Every structure is written in structure tokens, then in C-alpha cells.
Amino acid sequence: MTGAKRKKKSILWSKMHTPHCEDFKQWCRRRLPILEWAPQYNLKENLLPDTMSGIMLAVQQVTQGLAFAVLSSVHPVFGLYGSLFPAIIYAIFGMGRHVATGTFALTSLISANAVERLVPLSSQNLTTRSNTSIVGLSDFEMQRIGVAATVSFLGGVIQVAMFVLQLGSATFLLTEPVISAMTTGAATHVVTSQVKYLLGMKVPYISGPLGFFYIYAYVFENIKSVRLEALLLSLLSIVVLVLVKELNEQFKRKIKIVLPVDLVLIIAASFACYCTNMEITYGLEVVGHIPKGIPPPRAPPMNVLSAVITEAFGVALVGYVASLALAQGSAKKYKYSVDDNQEFLAHGLSNVIPSFFFCIPSAAAMGRTAGLYSTGAKTQVACLISCVLVLIVIYAIGPLLYWLPMCVLASIIVVGLKGMLIQFRDLKKYWNVDKIDWGIWVSTYIFTICFAANVGLLFGVVCTIAIVIGRFPRAKTLSIKNMKEMEFKVKTEMDGETLQQVKIISINNPLVFLNAKKFHTDLMNIIQKENANNQLLDDISKCEQNTLLNSLSNGNCNEEASQPGPSEKCFLILDCSGVTFFDYSGVSMLAEVCMDCKSRSMEVSLAHCTASLIKAMKYCGNPDSEKPISFESVSAALGNIYSNKSLSKLSDHSEV
Questions:
Q1: InterPro entries from the xrefs (predicted)?
Q2: Fold of the 485-531+568-650 domain
Q3: What is d(CA 348, CA 362) in angstroms, rounded to the nearest whole number?
């Protein structure tokens, strides 16, 4: 009895602990995405494109690291650290395969507010260069990076807390017009912050409400202090950068290696500045001394946590929103999924851990991500290769950047923001699809440039929610359900086969960002369920027919019933009479549904469409512009299907 009891206990014990071990493995794979893609990495197919992309990305990481560190009001060397550690952390925890995390203009601009407020430039005269400093910089510079690292630490803690609270599901409130307007406004702020370097002027740090306008007012008041040499060098750099990058984009299919114009410009400008001694001769501001190596880790100063809460929330929200938009765009383009909550964890750890290594706040940048697209990167290995090259710069090449003119660095920043600035072109699209979305874009942009990126983001979200809440009660809908399957019974000459292939679904609610994803999910579920039911009925009917017609088979119909029949085209009619209003997200999802159905060999027709919906569908991408997909009524759509069916049968008979 004792042995039997022990055996039972061991069986129970193994049953209790085996699922926990499997759950832990699944949890690790879910929270460490690198464990999913790294074992399946194909060296032959992916290593070469990832290596080339990593080299190009390293050039961007170095230049943007130096520039965004200056934008964050800290020494340029800390930008190199910020280009290294966050990229490694995100490669382990992040799900975006083409997302390049590192220094970011918007988060640098936000952290600069805390740095300038707590360690103003006026206190520089009170400190001297300290030989006991960790990286050989003055105490003033160490105090400044301490504040920036604290902003990064607290911002990362906020992001991790949002991951724990599972707030990633609330990202549907961040609509495309709001994100586009916020990033465009923040890019405008970044360009404004670089004006003093482009013109070679000494401009005091100006922040706060309407600071954007005060900066330009100061520039125009002191226009005579512009250094002509810096202005000419800035214009030349911008022209060269834009021209070469456009040529690279134009001929990227014909040339295998893209010209790293940023790197070439940095080398040429640094060499010219060194040979002509521009720093003394013309008074051009240069990057200056870049210390070698990486200092040992140190905890950020916790005594300023309460003073940087506002900036930390701005870094957490703005950095996450901009990064998530890039990750989702990458996932949509390359057909994989991204978990919104996991991205909170990845970016939170990418801010918390590097803050112990003197790093400024980090996030994903549009320019670097676009660079990975254009160079054909496959996985996060490209980012890891770039980290190796950044490490070489930190230990060997960094001091050679002493002579790099700041006006050239500012030009690289401005040109790198092109992707954000050209989002002004979206205004035409929003105007034609939904004028309220156009108004939200404009108002969010104005709030962003008048106040700050986090204020503009908050205003855009609140404004969007308020407008939707105000529009929903006025919606002319009789059903609270998102969609309802209609049973269609009509006396017609159509044959039974065609009737079975037609599916009619009525959309009884407006299509907006709040229910766009659910509309797509519910519709796909109905289609899959109906296809499964039809397949089962077809198998049963084939079995019965074979049993009646072939008496020699003795009722055995498995062989013939299992044979796949010819693929028949199915038809879906969406009754849009309940779509009383819509926004850009809803119309985009409707167009995406049409494309998904087309890939499933299902022809989609839209009935009872308003003129504004038809116009919006054209701007969002009509899935089949050659054939009309919108009809006055369900009967008209059915008549079109029947006429096409009759024509196809007639053509088949004529061929016979």
C-alpha cells in the first residue's frame, strides 16, 4: 500500500508541475521574442542583407546619436551610448523586426526641458573640468546627463507599469490623424531647435507655451548676427543630402549598395574643418572632445525624480506612440503580428536599463526604420550588427569627430525628419475622407507647436473621444449590434447553386476607429463559419447522391466525397445602409476587408452606399477599380451577380 500511495503521489506531483514548466516556456517565448526568431534564423538568406543594413544603420545611429544628444542638452558622447544599449535591449524584448530603437528627436526634446530647468547653462561657470569624473567631463556635464538619465529611468518605469496594467489594449484611441499630427508638430519643434546651428547664431534656450514663436521672434530680431559661413555650409549640406538620398531612392532597385551620404558628408566636413581650422578662422561651432570607452554603470540620481515627472510621462507616451506606429506599420508590411503590451515592456526596459549607462531617453525613429526597409533588412540582427559598429566608434573613432561642424550635424537632423514633415500631404486625404479627421489633425498640430508633443497628443485623444461620443447618439441605426446576418428569400430565376454562393451581411453601425477592428474580426468569423457549414453540406449531399446513383458502391462514399471539387467563386454583399457616418480608420478597414475577401476568391459588392462613402473608398484604395463594387440596393447587386453568372455560362456553352 505504501508503494502504491507513493506512486500516486508522484503521478499527481508530475501532473501538477509539468503544465507549469510548459507554461513557463511559453511565457518566455512570449516575453522574449528573440527566442522565437533566433533559432529559425537563416544564415544563407538573411545574413548578407542584415549585414548591409546594419552598416547603414550604424551610420545613422552615430550621426543621430550625436545630434539628438545635443538636442537633449547633454554632451554628444552620451548620444553614442544611447545608440548602443537601447538597441540591444529592444532586439531581445521587442517584436518589431524592422524597428531601430535608439536616440529619438521627440524624446530628446522633451528631456531637454528638464535638463535646462534643473541644470541651466548659467551654472556652467560654477563648475570646472574634474579629473576624477567618470568620463573626464566637467561636473556640469555629468549633472546634465544625470537629469536626462533620470527622465529615461522614470519614463521606462511608467512604460513597464503600463505593461503590467495591460494598457496596450487602449492604443485604439491613438488614431492615425492624431499620431500623424503629433509627430509632424514635434518634427517642426525639432527643426526649430536646429535653427541656431544652421544659422550659426547664439540663441538662448526658450521653452514653455508659445516658445516656438518666441524662438523665431528672437532670430528675426537678431538676424544680423547670422554667420554667413555656417548658413552656406548648412545649405550645401542639405542640398547634397536631399539630392543623393532621392537618387538612392530612385535607383535602389538597380544598385545593390546605397551610398552612405551621411557618412561621406561627416568625413568630408570634418576633414575640411580640420584643414582650414574653421573653428578659429570662421568661428564655426564643432562637436568637440569625444571621450573614449564606456564608463561603468551608475544609478541615475533619484533625488530629482519628483522634479521630472512631467517630462517622464511625456517621454513614456510620445516615445511609445511613435514607436508603436512604426512597429505596426512594419508588421502590416511584412505580414507578422505585434503585441501592443509587449511593446510597452520592450520600450520600458530599453529606457530603464540604459539609464544606468548614462543614456538619454530612447524610442524608434522613422528615418532609421525607413532605412532598414530600403536596405532590405530581414530581422533584428541588423540592429545588433549596427551595435557592434557603434561600439567600435565609441572605443576607436569617436575622438576623430572633434572637428565635425554643428551646422552639418543640424543639416543631417533636418533632412532625417523629412519623413515626418511630408505628412502634411495627408491633409488632402483626410479632407476627402472625413473633414472632422482633417480638423482633428490641424488642431492637434497647432496644440503641439504651441505647447508640446505630449500636450498635443493628449488633446488629440480627448478631442477624438469627445467627437465620437457626440456623433454616436445621432447615428441613424436601429440595432446596437455591429453587424447582423440577413436571411434573404426572394423569388428569382437564379439557380440554387448561385443562391448558395451569395452571402448578404448588413452593417448596422457607423464605421469608426472604435469598432473597425471588431468589424473585421466579426466579418471574417461569419465567412469562415459559413464556409465550414457549406463544405459540410456539400460533402453530405455528394455522399447521398453517390449512394443513390451508384448502387455498386454499397453506400461507401468516402473516396468520391473527399475529392475536392473545382473552386467556385463566392459572392459577398455588404449592406451599408447602417453606415450613417465613418472616419478614415473605418473606411481603411472596409477597403482592407474587400482585399482580404478578394484573396479568398470572394467577390465583394457594397449596397446602399452614400456618395461620401463611395468617394472615401476611392481615396482609401478601391480594391477593384475596373469593376463597380457599389450599388444602389441589394437587389441591384444580386442582379449584377446573376448577369455575370449568366454571361460566364453563356461563354462556357459557346466554347463547347
A1: SLC26A/SulP_dom (IPR011547), SLC26A/SulP_fam (IPR001902), STAS_dom (IPR002645), STAS_dom_sf (IPR036513)
A2: Transcription Regulator spoIIAA (3.30.750)
A3: 9
